[in-house]
Amino acid sequence: MMGLITKSRIKSPWIVHYCCGSCNGCDIELLACLTPLYDVERFGILNIGNPKHADLLVVTGPVNKRNERVLLNLYHQMPEPRVVVAVGACACTGGIFYNCYNVLGGIDKVIPVDVYVPGCAARPEAIIDGIVMALDKLAKIK
Amino acid sequence: MSKITFPFGPQHPVLPEAIQLSLTCEDEKVVEVLPVIGYMHRGIEKAAERNPYVNNVFLCERICGICSFIHALSYCQLMEELMQVEVPPRARYLRVVWSELSRMHSHLLWLGLLADSFGFESLFMQCWRARETVLDALEMTTGQRVVQSSCVIGGVRRDINADQARQLREMLAGVKAQIDAVLPVFQKDYTIKARTVGKGVLPKDQAWKLGAVGPTLRASGWAWDCRSLGYAAYGELGFEPVVENDGDSYARTMVRARELVQSYELVLRALDALPEGPLAAKIKGVPPKGEAIMRTEQPRGELFEYARGNGTPRLERLKIRTPTFANIPALLAMLPGCEIADVPVIVLSIDPCIACLER
């Protein structure tokens, strides 16, 4: 039974996207993944708004003092097993905003990250690659 | 009927970005709206005081990834004004080409998101399909899809050669065909009209009083567009602002739809008139000293920048007033009285860019 559930999870992972404080560059590239040219729905990937339905949390942008709580909330609302993908230089390390007073740094300061997708802005191909890597990790979680 | 207050955001399916609107409702009617901001604040203005002024071009580009070229352009023009640098004509025309390509991709993105906000999924896909070609054109000419980094203080970093210009025209002809297929849907479709006509009305006098900018202001009957100031090469390309008079969500959609076609024509005109010459002026002499302001037109409206330099490589102050910041009071005036179901459409109708708003 568990094998069947894991298989269906990998065949159709649902994503919840949260924009921490990015410049929008990675957000629109993530949205572009859903559109006809890249079309991630062929992998069964759906972008949904509800964290309680999601398997993957995709975060763009550096975490700051105000959205730290929101990010933690989202993470804890997701059912296990879950994986986190950090998209873009800012989500990985803070990026160009590393020295801004309101920025804490990469999102791994707040929640555990499974896959880092570098780039400023990360290209749709890189994002899809990152998500497919995350699926491998999701399959291995017992 | 008792009132109930609930949050819209910060994580909401309609908004790709984080902003919270605290909606107070009576039954299905919205009676009061309070914005709760700060979820995306980074402190870019302060960071700009720490970096050398040359590096700030890259920082300013990342205020917003959608209109990033125009952010860089405004900052470069501001520094050029402070240091009295004369920009070569070819660079001024290339800046127009990339500004208008950015506007095209931003407006197509917005038209798609609007369609998505009332559940018209296939139209969202069609708009974004057309947008991909614009992004390909940007990638071919600048090397990057969304954050182009092709503007520098004194000019531009890259050239568009004859071969690329020919390819660009071909790509744009394809985009134009796709736009021509999509725009009539926005103009005539019954469901779109039902969701936008008469929703979120902003009367002409109120639009001015609340300091709205960009398409939000122009949809309320004001011919106010900073491109009329003639910065870069706009003065030589015969530019006329697009105006609509109804002030509702439909009028705002129509302004952007017509601007999309106008941007396409401006790119072609700039390519036709592209003068020969160097790409960038050499920067010499002292770092920026004194005060200056700069106004440019972004896809979302007027961007205002102020800088004060003291002759050292670091600026004393950089103030950036972004268009979404100016449009929030207008949004708060539009929402009371509408149905809850119309909130996403009206919020999107000002084309909110929260990354710009909070910097």
Can you tell me about this structure?
The complex is a heterodimer of chains A (142) and B (359). Chain A has 142 residues and is an alpha/beta fold. Chain A has a single domain, classed as Rossmann fold, CATH 3.40.50. Chain A is 35% helix and 18% strand. Chain A contains five helices and seven strands, in the order αβαβββαβαββα. In chain A, helix 1 packs antiparallel against helix 5. The model of chain A has no long low-confidence stretch (mean pLDDT 85). With 359 residues, chain B is α+β, with helices and mostly antiparallel strands. Chain B has one domain: Orthogonal Bundle (Cytochrome-c3 Hydrogenase, chain B). Chain B is built from 13 helices and eight strands. Chain B has a three-stranded antiparallel beta sheet with strand order 1-2-3, with no helix packed on it. In chain B, a hairpin with a 4-residue loop joins strand 7 and strand 8. Chain B is globular. The model of chain B has no long low-confidence stretch (mean pLDDT 87). Chains A and B meet through strand 1 and helix 2 of A and helix 1 and helix 5 of B.
List the topology elements.
The complex is a heterodimer of chains A (142) and B (359).
Chain A (H helix, E strand, L loop, with lengths): L1 H10 L2 E6 L5 H8 L13 E2 L8 E5 L2 E2 L3 H10 L5 E5 L1 H5 L9 E3 L9 E3 L6 H17 L2
Parallel strand pairs in A: 1-2, 1-3, 3-5, 5-7
Antiparallel strand pairs in A: 4-6
Helix pairs in contact in A: 1-5
Chain B lengths: L2 E6 L11 E7 L2 E8 L7 H7 L5 H6 L6 H16 L5 H29 L3 H22 L8 E2 L2 E2 L5 H27 L1 H7 L7 H6 L4 H5 L30 H24 L16 E10 L2 E10 L4 E7 L1 H12 L8 H7 L4 H5 L1
Helix pairs in contact in B: 3-4, 4-5, 4-10, 4-12, 5-6, 6-10
Care to give the gist of this entry?
The complex is a heterodimer of chains A (142) and B (359). In chain A, 35% of the residues lie in helices and 18% in strands. With 142 residues, chain A is α/β, with parallel strands linked by helices.
